[in-house]
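Q: Given only this backbone (384 positions), what sequence would you predict?
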C-alpha cells in the first residue's frame, strides 16, 4: 500500500478510536453503533431470505412459462384470454385503464385512446400472450395526452427492465449484492489501479443492493438527491391557539430546541435564517421561507435554493376536546444523499431523533410550563 494510503488509514483509525472511546460519550456511541450493526444484520438477513424465495419463484414461473409455450394453447376460453391480455398491457402502456380489450376465438381486439409512441410495444406485448393468434388494432392514437380523459393522471407504466427501477426486487438485490461482494474481494486481492476500481465498483453495487435506492440518491448526485421523509403526530394538552402561537414564532425555538442555535426572521416575517448544531460540533446554516400560514390550522415552510440541507415541512393542528393534535411532516435531502444521512446518524446526529426530542420539550413546555434545554431550565413565560 502507498505511504499516503497508510497515512490516511492511520489518521482515520485514530479519529475513529477517539470518537468511539471518548470518556464522556464513547460508551453511548459504541452502544449506538452496536445497535445499528445488529439492526443492519437482521435487515440484510431478511433481504437474503426474501431474495432466495423470489429467485425460486421466478425460476418456477419461467419453467412453467416455457412448458406452456411448448404446448398447444389454441383453445383458450375468451374470458381467460381477455384477463391475460389485460394483465399484459399494464407493462406496455402508461394508462392501461383506457384500453378496451375483447377477445374472440384467439383474436384480441384493442380499442380506446393510447399514446402514439406506446402502440408498437403494446401490440408486441399482446402478440406474445399465450393463446393470442391475431391482434386487431382499433386504437385511437394521440401524440400528447391533452384533452383526452383516458390519458389524464399520473402514468402507471412500470419500468420493464428491472435493473432500471428505483426499487429492485429481492432476487435482483441478492444477485447484485453477491456480484458486488465478489467484485470487491477481487479488487482488494489484486490491488493496483484496476483492483481499486473493481473494489469501488463492488462497494457501490453492494450499497445499491442493500439500501435499494438509485445510486444518484445514495450519493446525492444530480437532480435526484435522496430524500428522507419523517412524520410525527402527538397530542398536546393545550389549546390550538397557544400551540400555534409558539410554532409561528421560530425566534423562540433556540430557547427550547437543543439542536437550534439561532433563528432570525426577516422584517416581513416571511423568511428566516437558521443556525443549527451539526455533527461533531459543526455549524449548519440555511434560509427558509413560509409557504403556508393558516392561523390555528397549519404552517408550511421550505428552504431557499442553495441551502446546505434542502427540506420542506408542514405542521398541521387539529382541536381535540380542548387539546391539540399536532402532525409534523418533514422531508429533507441530506448532503451526499442517503449515505450522508447514514454516516451522520452513526455519528450520533439523527434528525429524526432530534425532532422527537424537540417535540417532547415543546409538549412539556406547553403542558408543564417548563422544560430543560441546553442544560438549563426554560419556562414558558421566559419566551415572551
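A: Predicted residues:
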Amino acid at each position: 500500500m502507498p505511504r499516503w494510503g497508510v497515512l490516511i488509514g492511520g489518521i482515520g483509525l485514530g479519529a475513529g478510536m477517539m470518537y468511539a472511546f471518548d470518556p464522556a460519550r464513547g460508551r453511548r456511541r459504541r452502544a449506538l453503533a452496536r445497535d445499528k450493526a445488529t439492526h443492519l444484520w437482521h435487515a440484510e438477513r431478511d433481504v437474503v431470505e426474501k431474495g432466495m424465495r423470489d429467485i425460486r419463484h421466478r425460476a418456477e414461473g419461467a419453467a412453467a412459462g416455457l412448458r406452456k409455450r411448448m404446448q398447444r394453447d389454441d383453445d383458450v376460453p375468451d374470458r381467460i384470454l381477455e384477463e391475460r391480455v389485460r394483465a399484459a398491457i399494464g407493462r406496455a402502456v402508461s394508462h392501461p385503464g383506457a384500453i378496451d380489450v375483447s377477445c374472440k376465438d384467439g383474436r384480441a381486439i384493442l380499442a380506446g385512446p393510447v399514446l402514439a409512441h406506446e402502440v408498437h410495444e403494446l401490440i408486441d406485448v399482446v402478440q406474445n400472450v399465450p393463446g393470442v393468434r391475431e391482434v386487431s388494432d382499433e386504437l385511437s392514437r394521440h401524440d400528447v395526452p391533452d384533452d383526452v380523459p383516458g390519458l389524464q393522471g399520473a402514468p402507471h407504466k412500470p419500468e420493464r427492465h428491472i435493473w432500471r427501477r428505483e426499487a429492485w426486487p429481492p432476487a435482483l438485490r441478492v444477485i447484485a449484492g453477491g456480484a458486488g461482494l465478489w467484485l470487491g474481494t477481487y479488487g482488494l486481492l489484486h490491488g493496483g489501479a484496476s483492483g481499486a476500481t473493481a473494489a469501488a465498483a463492488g462497494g457501490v453495487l453492494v450499497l445499491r443492493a442493500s439500501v435499494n435506492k438509485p445510486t444518484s440518491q445514495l450519493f446525492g448526485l444530480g437532480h435526484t438527491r435522496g430524500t428522507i421523509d419523517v412524520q410525527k403526530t402527538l397530542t398536546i394538552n393545550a389549546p390550538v391557539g397557544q400551540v400555534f402561537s409558539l410554532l409561528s414564532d421560530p425566534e423562540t425555538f433556540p430557547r427550547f430546541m437543543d439542536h437550534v442555535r439561532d433563528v432570525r426572521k426577516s422584517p416581513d416575517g416571511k423568511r428566516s435564517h437558521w443556525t443549527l448544531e451539526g455533527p461533531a460540533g459543526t455549524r449548519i446554516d440555511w434560509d427558509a421561507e413560509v409557504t403556508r400560514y393558516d392561523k390555528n390550522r397549519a404552517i408550511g415552510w421550505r428552504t431557499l435554493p442553495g441551502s446546505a440541507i434542502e427540506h420542506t415541512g408542514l405542521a398541521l393542528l387539529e382541536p381535540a376536546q380542548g387539546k391539540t393534535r399536532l402532525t409534523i411532516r418533514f422531508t429533507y435531502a441530506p448532503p451526499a444523499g442517503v449515505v450522508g444521512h447514514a454516516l451522520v446518524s452513526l455519528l450520533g446526529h439523527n434528525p429524526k431523533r432530534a425532532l422527537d426530542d424537540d417535540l417532547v420539550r415543546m409538549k412539556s413546555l406547553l403542558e408543564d410550563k417548563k422544560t430543560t434545554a441546553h442544560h438549563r431550565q426554560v419556562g414558558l413565560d421566559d419566551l415572551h
